[in-house]
């Protein structure tokens, strides 16, 4: 994890140094305006309106990490799974999420709308976890 974080940071640094900006904006004066990529990190008035949205996003992302973090402990304790079974089940869990994100989320969002799709997904997750709590065999 440390190596991945360091390599990711190095890639970001190299991209900032060597990649040229392709979106050249011109201000009202017609002169080239320099784009500042780190201006987003300032907590000014523009970001204050996003505080609630960012908080909800953070909570949903945090909740989304719980299953993967506890999957190994739960599988080994509840079903006496070995490392191979835990790994395969976690891979299937991740593949299922990837397939649904790639092929189901878009069409469902276009059909139901964004809010109902989000609520449907959260309800489906909750239902799945409730059913998993009652599982006796793995």
UniProtKB/TrEMBL annotation:
Transmembrane region(s): 51-74, 86-104, 116-135
Key words, A-Z: Membrane, Transmembrane, Transmembrane helix
UniProt cross-references to InterPro entries, sorted A to Z: MFS_trans_sf (IPR036259)
Transmembrane as UniProt keyword: yes
Superkingdom classification of source: Bacteria
UniProt protein name: TetG
Gene: tetG
């Amino acid at each position: 994890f440390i190596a991945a974080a360091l390599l990711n940071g190095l890639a970001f640094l190299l991209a900032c140094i060597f990649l040229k900006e392709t979106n050249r904006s011109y201000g009202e004066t017609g002169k080239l305006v320099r784009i500042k990529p780190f201006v987003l990190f300032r907590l000014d008035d523009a970001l204050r309106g996003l505080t609630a949205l960012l908080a909800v996003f953070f909570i949903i992302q945090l909740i989304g990490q719980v299953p993967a973090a506890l999957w190994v402990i739960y599988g080994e304790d509840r079903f006496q799974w070995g490392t191979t079974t835990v790994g395969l089940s976690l891979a299937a869990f991740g593949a299922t999420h990837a397939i649904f994100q790639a092929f189901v989320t878009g069409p469902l969002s276009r059909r139901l709308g964004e809010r109902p799709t989000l609520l449907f997904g959260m309800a489906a997750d909750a239902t799945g976890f409730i059913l998993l709590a009652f599982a006796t065999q793995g």
